[in-house]
Amino acid sequence: MARESIFKAAASLQKKLLQLPESGMGFQFVADAISSKNWLVLNSEVLIEIKLGFVPSFEYKDASMFQEINFEPVFQLGRLSVPAIEAPIQKAKGTEADYWVRLSAFEQDRRIDGRTGRLLPGSFTTRITDFTNMGLMIPGDTTPHLRIPHERYALPNNLPISWVFSIKAANGDEFQQGIALPAYSRSGGGVECFFANGTSEGTLHQKLRA
């Protein structure tokens, strides 16, 4: 893909994107209100133009190598029917069972507030149990593709998962839990959880290299 089709969001645009909910774990789909261009946004920073409804293949190493862009984003839900968003609201109890995992290609994941140690509102995660089960080798397994995170969580890019953020939600933190639907030629099938209001301060438990 041509480098001209990938851009870095200007600081003011990054701020706006962080105020919009994600379409799935680590990505957003937005439209430019003026030009009507559609964009795949990674980490609220890297923008890849989508043409004819197709997410092209691309290479990425460092956002600084791309030209800055600024526009007025209009949120578009990437999947029109996402079970996690449609699921009933639940409340974490702050127990040992209330651990979630966020997978990211970026060490500085912008959906994690490093100052307060919390997950920002409108962010996706998966259950730590689902993430752990992904690595299990089961005799006679007919769905080995579900051990690939991009397939399991229907992620629209091929960037390697380099960082794992574990989050221990506090008592009362609200979330919705569902199953990732097939999308972007991915199978889906993994557990996805949506935190409309984010998590409480100090809930970031660990940051690990994958």
What does this structure look like?
The chain has 210 residues and is mainly beta. It folds into two domains: 3-76, no CATH class; 83-209, no CATH class. It is 11% helix and 32% strand. It contains four helices and 15 strands. The protein has helices at residues 11-18, 83-86, 128-134, 149-152, and strands spanning 6-9, 27-32, 38-42, 46-50, 68-69, 73-76, 89-91, 99-104, 112-113, 118-119, 123-127, 163-168, 174-179, 191-195, 204-209. The strands form three sheets. It has a seven-stranded antiparallel beta sheet. The protein has a six-stranded mixed beta sheet with strand order 5-1-4-3-2-6.
For the sheet with most strands, the description reads:
7 strands, antiparallel
| Spatial strand arrangement across the major sheet | 7-13-14-11-8-12-15
Please provide the count of β strands. Answer: 15
Strand proportion: 25-35%
Number of domains: 2
- Helix amount, in percent? 10-25%
Radius of gyration based on Cα positions: 17 Å
What count of helical segments does DSSP give? 4
Structural class: mainly beta
Broad shape: globular
* Helix and strand sequence: EHEEEEEHEEEEEHHEEEE
Ends: how far apart? 27 Å
Which regions are unreliable across 5 or more consecutive residues at pLDDT < 50?
Answer: 77-81, 136-143
Determine the mean pLDDT: 84
Give the key terms.
six-stranded mixed beta sheet, 32% strand, mainly beta, globular, 2 domains, 11% helix, 210 residues, seven-stranded antiparallel beta sheet
